Structure formats: structure tokens, C-alpha cells
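Technical appendix A lists one of the benchmark inputs used to test multi-chain prediction within the project. The record comprises two sequence entries:
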Amino acid sequence: LISSAAIDRVLMAALAVFLLSVPWLVPALINGFWVSVIAEILIWSLLAASVNLLFGYVGLLSFGQALYFGFGMYGVAIGISDFGLSFWPAFALGIAAAVAMAVATGIFAVRLTWHYFAIITVVFSLIFYFLALTNKWLTGGDDGINFTLPATFSIGASKWSFAEPAFQYFFILATVTLCLWLMHRLVNSPLGRALLAIRSNEVRASLIGLNVYLLRLIAFVLAGFLAGVAGALFAFFGRYASATYMFYHVSGEAVVWAIVGGAGTLFGPLVGTTIFIVLREIVSTQWEHHALIVGAVAILVVIFAPKGVVGLWREWLTRLGERRATASVEARWRTEP
Amino acid sequence: MDKFLLLGMNGLIWGLIIALIALGLAIIFGLLDVINLAHGDFFMVGTVLAWATLQWTGSFWLGFLIVPLIGFILGALIQRVVIQPIHNAAALSIVATFGLSLILQESVRMTFGPTPRRILPPIQGTVPLFGIDYELYRIFAAAVAIVSLVGFFLFLHRTRLGTWIRAVRHDRDTAVAMGVPAHRVYVFTFALGFALAALGGVVAAPITTVDFRGGVDILPFCFMAVIIGGLGNLPGTAAAAILLSFLEGIIQSVADPTVARIASLVLMSAVLLLRPQGLFKGLTR
């Protein structure tokens, strides 16, 4: 008999094997285009993970994560096109810009909770979205900034860059995996426990000596970091940055992906993002009005799986385990004289 | 000076229309705890239905009657099919109404088409007002909005249904114990919210463009009005909508519209941080 933990382990291993073999397996099975779709899914799932870190583990619903995503993007694009930076300094600039923005806005935002928090995050992101639209000299506005891709590693004459699809894929996979692993470690650390304590009861958490404001700020900045890494990766992936990615619709999509996948679970954002982007890629080639299906799926999931797809899966596994337990008890009963 | 007056007036009248839409958002939020991301699209559907009414019947005026009615029916249907099953859970309502927003926008794009259209004002001509020639239709629009706002508050305070709405919002369990059919009040409130947004759409259709993306800009503005007015404070919401839009109009006479929008967003952040209970707390009850 297989336990539910074993089922999870098998799934994890299968996922790891699949993800590692994507650049060879996917072109053989479908076509090379899907390698970049999967890379894109990985990047966006990091943005959904940043929503999840705040909502699933701290109970703060941010509707403005696109702001930090946008700063990550622009940090890279401006770093390369204006300052002539190479890959790693531009990457660092993107992440630093996002983190600095998260600190600056977080100081104010985490003073508020629930509805007020959701609104102020969207307000902050709208302010910078409009600023990015008007300051075309810096951001290129709607048209954005295109830049030529610098090499990631150059050792002697040999260069590795995102121009090579397999390298691009593995670089993104490694970065996203590292971020998700760090998040996993964080959630299971004393800091993570403290965050969960705040989510379940703010007053009690403060009474046992937790600094609620500071802990929320830390979570907010970490979420900004995740979104910033996603934005920086997306800038390298698309070779450009644009103000449209800072609009509240982008933040909203990330919220939907996180909740549909399963808020408060490590893999929920990845599952949610995968469902919606795969759906978009498949249906949009067949039918112009694919948004209708995306909308319907979002509604159906919240009605029939309010804890998200991963939540549904967990429930199913638990029920399976319980049924097995009763079955084995009954079996023992029967063997007794 | 003329430009200042013109844009100030435009802002004021636009604010009256926004107040109608924002009140719809506020009652849905206050009663059902639903963060309605599709509310801007309810307005957009109103503008499109106004256009359709004009096309099919040849009369714009009929739209004032038909469109809010269709909005009401659509709202009731949506509440039963989409909102009721999620048991008023705010986080889930965000996802559900986001899906709804996509469906409404895409349905309109499919049927009405992706190109924005204009409706000619059914009343042509201008009137002299404070030394400028002002469009007659905008004054008419302001009158319709004011009458509707007054009507809404009278309904809420002077009718049994309105009292039920206030009762359920105040204390659901007691209201149910007193025999108020809470579920029907939920359906009615959501439908009324849609109808108000749709009515706003009809009034605004000749002033703005009819476009499937028409709700995208309206939505954050309505949320701002609800928050600055104070969550649950309906007169505050209406006042905030008018005030914000008027301020934006005035700023627009000296600066870019985007700068005006940034200014109202900054104002809103300040209100949220300094007076999270809304600008008007303490002034009403």
C-alpha cells in the first residue's frame, strides 16, 4: 500500500524529472515553442508565489505585486540600455530596485490590513504605473524599452546567454527553484511560524511578544524580492520592459493564479499559473475569445474548489488515507476469532 | 479661466455619474462583503446596452428605462450563479469577479466589436453658463444623476426593502430572526448594484466612448471613492466621488490628465494612512 506522503514524493520526483528533461522531451513530443512557454510559466509562478507568501502565510492580500515585478523589469532594462551594465549587475540592479521599492512602500502599506491593505497596494502600484506612462524618456511608456541581451557567463571565448533556449530555460528553472526552496525554508523556520501566528490571530501574536509590524514588513519585502526576481527574469526572457506590466491587471492575474492553485501551499501558485497559461496557449491558437474560457475556469474553481486545486488534492489524499485506515481496522476485526 | 471653469464643471458632472456607480459598488461591498472587480464592466455593459438600444429602437431615451432593467436582471442572475455559491468569502469573490470581468469584456468584444464607438448626445446645443457655452446634454446628465442619487437614498431610508438592506448590513442574524429574507435581500442588492452601474453607463455613454475596455479606468476610481468616503458610509462615498472628480477636473486645467490621476491617488494614500475610516467620519451619525 502507498501512503499519501509517498504519492506526493512520487509526484515531486516525476515533476523534477519532467522539468529537467523539458529542453529535449518537449521539442520531441510537441515542439520547441513550448519550452519557452514552460519557462514563462516558471517566471509567472514566482510572481504568484509572491502573492501567496503574503496572502497564504501572512493573511495580507496584495493587489500591487506587479509594481515590484515592473521595478525588477525596469532595473534590468534601464541598467543595460542606459548604464551599459552586463548581465549580473543588471540582474542585481533589477532585484535591488524591487526590494528598495518594497521597503519604501511596505513601511506604509503594512500599517494597514485586509481591505485597506489590498486597496493601498493597488493605489501604490497605480501611482507608479501612471508615472511610468508619463515619464517616457526613462521608461518608454507603453512601448517600453528594448535592449540587446548581454551574455550571462563568458569564460574566454565561450559565451552562455539567453539567446540559447536550453540555457535560458535552465537558468530560469534554477533561479525559480532556488527562490521557491528559500521560500519553503522560510515558511518552515521560526520566522515562518511567527508569520502564521500573525495570520491566525494578530492580537495573540502581539501578546506573546511578536513584533507584528516588523514581521509583516519583512514578509512584504521578501514578497517584493520574489516579484522583483520574476520581473528581472522576465525582462531577460522578453529582452524588454514595459509599463503595461505594472498595471493592476497583472497583479490581479497573479492573485487569481495563487488562489486557484491553492493559497498557503508551496506548489499552489505553480499549479494555478500552469493551468491558466497552458489554457491560454492552447485555446488562443484555436479561438480568439479565449478569455471567456479563462474567466469561466476561474469562477468554476472558486465555486467547486474554494481551497484551490492543491487544497482539493490534499483533501482527496486525506480522505483516501482515512478510508484506508477504516478498511484496515475492519480487516483486523474480521481476522479475530 | 474659461478652461478652468469648463474642466471643473466637466469634473463635477462626471463625479455625479461616478457617484452612482460607486454607490453600486459600495452596497455590494457593504452587504455581501464582495470585492467586485467586475463593477467597472457593469458600467461598460451599461454604455454598450445604451448604444444597442439606440441602434435597435432608434431612441436613446428608451435606454434610461431598458438598460437599468437589463442590468438588474443580469445582476440577479450573476448573484445566484456566481456569488451565492462562494458564501460571501471576500478572497474568493476577488477571483470570481475577476473571472466575471473577463467574461463580460470578452462577450462585449465578441458581439459589439473591439473598436470604440461614439454616441451623439441626444440633446444638441449649448447654454451660456457663467460666461462659457456649456453642452446642454451634460447638464441634463447631471440632473439625471442627481435625481437618481436622491431616489436611491430615499429608497434606502423610506421603503421596506431599503430598510431590510440596511438591517441585513447592520446585523444579519438579528435581521433574519426578525423575519427579513436575507438571501433575497442579497440577490436584490447585487442586482441593484449592477442596475446603478448600468444607469451610470447610459448617462455617460454620450459623454465618453463606448468601448469594451471602458470599465478598466472606472474601477479604481470607484474603489477610491468608496475608501475615501469610508467603508460602509454611503453618503460619504457619493461625496468622495464628486469631490475627487471635481479635483481631477481642476488639476486637468493646469496639467496632464495623468498628473491629475496621480494627484488623486496620492491624496487617497494619505487618506488611507491618516484617516482609514474615511474622510467624513464623525460628520455623519
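Residues 2-32 of chain B form the longest helix (31 residues). The radius of gyration of chain B is 19 Å. Comparable benchmark entries are summarised in Table A2.
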